[in-house]
Amino acid sequence: RAVMLSRTSLALLRAGTRLGHQASMPAVRANSNFYWATPPRNRVSVGTKVGMGVSLYLVWFLPLCAFLQICKNYRTEGEDAE
Hints:
Elements: H1 2-37, H2 46-81
Transmembrane segments: 54-71
Keywords: Membrane, Transmembrane, Transmembrane helix
């Protein structure tokens, strides 16, 4: 059961990272190009910063939290069974 769980979580994690890269890399590239092309006064707007922060949070933080939660639940289940 542990092997199955780890396999599914790994597959989910891989899919999530792939989606995250596809979603975030063009935005990051465009953002960095925009960042270096503009003068320092008006480089990155607050909206862009917030959008990037939210997308990074959604792409990396939530899957990580879910993964850790699954691991914690599984570990406590195993201890209870023993």
